[in-house]
Amino acid sequence: MKSLSDSLLETNYTAKARHGSDSMMNLTRRIKIFSKSPLSEVAKRKRSGTYQCCTQQNHNASRSLDYRELIKKHTEVTTNHLTPELQLHLITPTCPLWYTGIADCIFSDPYWAFYWPGGQALTRYLLDNGKEVADKVVADIGSGCGASAIAAAMMGAKQVLANDIDPVAALAIQMNAELNGVYPNIEISTENLIGHSKHWDFLLLGDMFYDKDISDRVLEWMDMLAGQNTKIFVGDPCRIYMLDHPIRTKLRLIAEYDLTDECKEENYGLSSGFVWEFIP
């Protein structure tokens, strides 16, 4: 049975099958191997005012529901990942929601409920090299479950921002920060900050290079921030958009980690997570 994470990985790509000779099975398998689902679609809906915290058919009924209780009910607190120092609310194979299709999911696009490979590698690096961010101002953009921001706070960062455009992700980040004893030391924002000129000592980007459009916009932004002396770390399992993108010429590899067996299985062949420093 297809899992929710599988469905997320395939979201918005099915139309591409009409423009090539490959079967849908082969197409979606390549997408699973090389690509994270297009969060840019969520961003577009949010900017256009059509974004909802839950699926459209459940929106009215769910308006009064306590999302904190929903997150507790539909996720598992787990340490089964590259960073067992952190407890995280995640959707795992033990959760019924794992086997639910997107149309039937109480949450809209719950990317925050999965610990993506690049984020795992980036967070592992921060935990192993805490002196990098100690006493620094750190921003984690596209924060998802908040793991990298939480790690930065645990390692003594002076100020930490966890930013994700999904308001349910923002609540999940808060809950995960509480679990790990670093809330309210983390500021949480749902503003779309890509392209904004802010002063941070460190910018953390985990799993952000999942399609060409977002990769182009993020690279332009990274160039701008690097010009303001912001140090930028990127975590990614080498998806195809990063392999083929000009950003590769501006990245210096600083760490590589073997993914857990569970993470390898969930991500269809990706075996390592990488951390790069951006060199403009």
Automatic annotation (TrEMBL):
Alphabetized SUPFAM superfamilies for the sequence: S-adenosyl-L-methionine-dependent methyltransferases
Pfam families per UniProt: PrmA
Swiss-Prot/TrEMBL keywords: Methyltransferase, Transferase
Source organism, top-level taxon: Eukaryota
UniProt xrefs under Gene3D superfamilies: Vaccinia Virus protein VP39
GO cellular component entries: mitochondrial matrix
Molecular function GO terms recorded: protein-lysine N-methyltransferase activity
GO process terms (BP): methylation
CDD domains: AdoMet_MTases
Similarity comment: family membership: Belongs to the methyltransferase superfamily. ETFBKMT family.
Protein name per its UniProtKB record: ETFB lysine methyltransferase
Source species of the chain: Lingula anatina (Brachiopod)
The organism's taxonomic lineage, starting at the top: Eukaryota, Metazoa, Spiralia, Lophotrochozoa, Brachiopoda
